Amino acid sequence: MTTLLDKLGRTTKRPASRTDTALEQRKVQFDWEHTELDWIPGEPFASHFINEINMILPAGEFWFCRLYNKALPMITDAKLKEDVRGFIKQEAMHARGHSDAISNYLEERGINTSRNQAVMNFLFEQVLADAPFGKPVPKWFEKRWLLLRLGLVATIEHMTCVLGKYALENDQWDKAGADAMLLDLIRWHGAEEIEHRNVAFDLYQHLGGDYLSRYYLAAIVVPMIFGLWVDGAAHVMGQDPRFAAKKPSVFKPWVWLQWQKTAKKGLLPKPLWLALSNLSYFSPWYNPAKEGSTEQAQAYLKRSPAAQAARSIADTLARAV
């Protein structure tokens, strides 16, 4: 017998996808020839701190793509499946963009990136692999292991949406005379994070992700990202003679205090603000659609030099066919 609650549940059930646009892969390219290591003039701490993002992201984003390709056959909603395919294409392009910055920008300017990249590769290729540390998971745990990792992605994607919005709205970089090429890399990536902000959470819920798991995964992921970011940035700063005497380390107060000091200038997100920005994710009523604006993201993507150039090349190729 159908109850009133059953009927209400069916009539109020939300669609599997909340993404309100088609997700396009923009095949951007960046020319690093004229970008200085201190891409924010006179601000080496902020420059190094944000440059570390280039080393954090590629391994994780390629891992996202592998994981989502594994999840694709399990998706029963056509629109969500389309979203996930678009998400994979965008994340692959993000990974390529930051990988190029590692080899053609950071390493060309004398930064040794091997240690920081090795940390991220170990995390995503060993710890979070389909077979963690080379040990296959039991058959009964395979779907649960996939779902747990999809929950990690959903948590990470919330933070990247928050950071993307910060990048689009922060005009202090421009006022400080920051390098236009690196700003475009950050803002192009941030805009696409906002554009596809619903996908990871929608997929997690669609495949059975629950609130309790989301809660403890977020409690693990948020401090882990803070630690990886500060640890990697500290390692880069340790290669800079201007900071070498400080012996930067994630375990020493100096780097955290300097982060807060630099954030007061508007050149980095404030640590407390960034931590508090993740509280909405812990809500049972969390809705990623409310965390950003597709219109704001696409407005930047229309004027992004790299995205404009990619669009021009795509249009030229389409006319030639």
Query: Kindly state the mean pLDDT as a whole number?
Result: 93
Radius of gyration: 20 Å
Proportion in β-strands: under 5%
Helix and strand element order: HHHHHHHHHHHHH
How far apart the termini lie comes to 59 Å
Sequence stretches where pLDDT stays below 50 over 5 or more residues: 1-12
Given the structure, what is the number of helices? 13
Largest sheet: none
Key features of this structure:
0% strand; 321 residues; mainly alpha
Describe the structure.
This protein has 321 residues and is an all-alpha fold. 64% of the residues lie in helices and 0% in strands. The protein is built from 13 helices and no strands. The longest helix has 29 residues, at 78-106. The chain is globular and about 55 Å long.
Provide a concise account of the structure shown.
By secondary structure, the protein is mainly α. It has helices spanning 4-12, 44-71, 78-106, 114-127, 142-169, 172-175, 180-195, 199-206, 211-237, 253-263, 271-276, 294-303, 305-320.
SSE inventory with pairings:
Blueprint: H1 4-12, H2 44-71, H3 78-106, H4 114-127, H5 142-169, H6 172-175, H7 180-195, H8 199-206, H9 211-237, H10 253-263, H11 271-276, H12 294-303, H13 305-320
Helix pairs in contact: 2-3, 2-4, 2-5, 2-9, 3-8, 5-7, 5-8, 5-9, 7-12
